[in-house]
Please model this.
Amino acid sequence: MLKLTKMLATALPAALLSTAALADGETIAVFTKNQTNPYFQTVRVGADVAAKSLGAKVVHYIPTKPDSIPEQLSQIEDVIVKKPSAIVFVPVDYKAMVPGVEQINDAKIPVVNVTDRSAGGKFLAFVGADDYSLGLETARYLLKTMGGKGNVVILEGVKGSLTNIDRVRGFNDAIKEFKDVKLLASQPGNYQRLQGLQVMENLMQSHPQIDGVLAANDAMAIGAIEALDGANRKAQVIGINGTKEAVDAIKSGKLLASGDYNGFVQGCIGTMVAIRALRNEAIVGEVVLKPTVVNASNYKPYDVPLDARTCPTWEEAAAMATKTPTKTN
Amino acid sequence: MSVAGDISTGAPRLHLSQDMQQLLYRLLAAGLLCVALSIATDAFFTTNNILNVLRQASLLFFLASGLTLVILTGGLDLSVGANIGLSACLAATVIKATGSPVLGTLTGLTAGCAVGICNGLMVAKLRIPSFIATYGMLWVLHGITYYYMAGETIHGFPPGFRQIGSGYFLGIPIPVYLMVGFLVAGTLFAQRTVWGQQIYAIGANPVAARLTGIPVDRRLILVYAFSGAMAGVASIVFLARLNSAEGDIGEAMTLPAIAAVLIGGASLFGGVGSVFGTFVGALILTLVLNGMNLLAVNASWQPLVTGVIVIFAVWLDMVGRRRS
Amino acid sequence: MSDQALSSAPARLRIPAVPGVAVALAGLAVLFSALSPGFLTAGNLSNILVQSVILLLLALPMTLIIMTEGLDLSMGAVLTLASLVLALIVVSTQSLVLGLAGALGVGLAFGLVNGWLVSVLSIPPFVATLGTMGAAQGLALIVSDGQSVVGIPRFIRQVYSGEVAGIPTPILIGAGFYALFHVLLYHTRFGTYICALGGNRDALTLAGVKWKRLLIAAYMLGGAMAGVAALLMTARMNSGHPTAAIGMEFDAIAAVALGGTSFEKGNGWIFGTLMGVLTVGVLRNGLNLLAVPSSVQVACIGALVIFALFLDGMRSHKS
Model:
């Protein structure tokens, strides 16, 4: 028994030391919500690319239980002990993580808010997209393609999630602009592919004629497409996120369009802001990406694999700024 | 089952064994549910919807059938959901790399089975309680899957392969044929083979089973291997249906699968239950969820309703058994 | 007379020489101290203790319940619901006392239902608490409509982040309840009965003890502790959230099993549970400090659980 323990005691450090940070340049701690949603992977890769190009190091913190609030709070406490140079923060829940942000503020670590706008705490800057406009523009695109009339359904995301609230609001406002469009149902698919599929199947049972599907994210949109294919029915489907899978579906004509929710760029700019602030260079207070609807005519730039992408230059990022920085320390 | 004459009235009475009675009650319950739903909404009793229900139930059934064997021995397998995730991701990789759905399917089945064998070894040889062993395995599987997938998805499989999940044959979804196949095979195995009877014996009385010469350890490894292999089957059907692999496929299916087994009349103490009962349990659970969706019941009520049904089904079972 | 029959019932556990969990805890602590400079600081150790308290509050009553050959799968969901109820009450009445009463009420109510299902209807604990878990989860989603409940006055935060005589309040709360459970289990008749409920239920019946009420009490204790934990959780998040503690019961069960309490024989060891909880806390903290990738962390947690019980299995096999 002791032999086994001894073996592990020597093997483990060897394995772990290879991942232990040897700080050389700034260390940026990047917090994301979970390991499974591809969107956050794009944010992480964006952060990695930005840091590498600027000579800093990034360490990722992801809860072992997806979207776990207590775990992200614990990770913040543990990270504060390590004193990273700065933090790039995607809150698991934009309201419940406020005490965690306040702890970061108390520890005087500069922090940038990315993707979900936190309901409290002090940040160097916010980098995100405007979910409302994204929902609005993407929905408008679909409704125009439908000729301004027909039946639509909405597949909502996770209840209580900020992105969901804004996107669905955008959908609904777009629908109001088209008098001859009828909203048949609005059901949650929890941003999951399988649920999107099953909800779509059930909706197709209750409604024989569906012309358009507004899905709050690409996973659900793809799920809806699979459901339609399975039942040999046709409808125009849009999603949001602009993931690789969505781009492939647009290429093959199955998906009409996807709202570009560019996690890669958000990760880039968020990290760039953090590093520049540490180096006392000029930063911006807020970057809200303009809504872009990815469709069959403009998908080429989105078809580039993640590892081949480069971050926007600082000049490009600053040009997108929507607010001047506020003094936080 | 036997027909016996009643002396006083001279009318023949049908004697059904306990288990058969319970099964009939459950079928009755499923039937009543169908009737109720048909009345409540027009959308229920359409061909499309019935086929959908059967297809959704099949996914649950694949997982629950393997679990039934484990539960028959008095154990539990909490790792099946995570097993689906890993097996699906490995199968997807192979399909993409070799272009061969056959190789991919074999990979998925082998991976699921291998995980099951590990579980079985932990329970039988290392004597770790099944709850803990499979719970630990759940975490280990998730860790491996997340590491391997690194937050990405694998998507876009050959249309022939996708028929397994979303195709039809003679108007009936293919997963339903698979479900019937496994139902028949599982029932025959459990009721009519020596190994099946040995599994029941192990659950009913492990000590006695050992004393009568049943190779308990080998049978335990067998049931966990089955459970893992069925998770592998489920992962292939999932893959074919969803046309993509993500790290957390199947995550939410473990507890509903256990619920299906319990609703089907199996006892957690082992020795009681059947694959057919699990089939009915999976059907009942899927009918309820389908009904709630069709009636546009707020999704928040689903966990509550599922919970109440599980308790009610088990309670009815116990009341029924105690009466005779 | 009833005491005579019971005094021969084993009230203590035959603790193996060096339990698996002690090896794991000590080993991990040494490992992380060596690899990570920040690990052995007062601040970090204090963090580990504070982060472990909520899980400890669930694991303590879970130990008792497992000793009765039962299980409570509803604890995480009940904690979540209680935390929401507390948040809602505090937001509308500004009264912490009323909020706590609400949380305790929710916990006790679910505990009562659990206990009744298990003892009166004789439904297996796994099934009964699986059902009530679903009920609590559903209620949490319905009550909150899927959203966080915010607007909680700042002073509630003090319960989690405040200190008394330099010691963080949660640690005091945890220590207090640990002491309570220790006394309850080893120095009261209730504790003796609980031990007997696990291994020797017939003896209790013969002795005329109303064991059904004891069982109900055990589950209600679990529910009440979920209510207390809800206070800490709400204070920590400064909000109530409908999915905050989902799944925590499995962590609690794993911690209890890590600590050496057996599912089958009614042996229970509170100190083992404490070590189990701390081991998990140390592991997570250490891995975070070492910035180990999250996927590897997930696998390590599973490996720890299996490893510790494997050690125990080997030991009892040898003896």
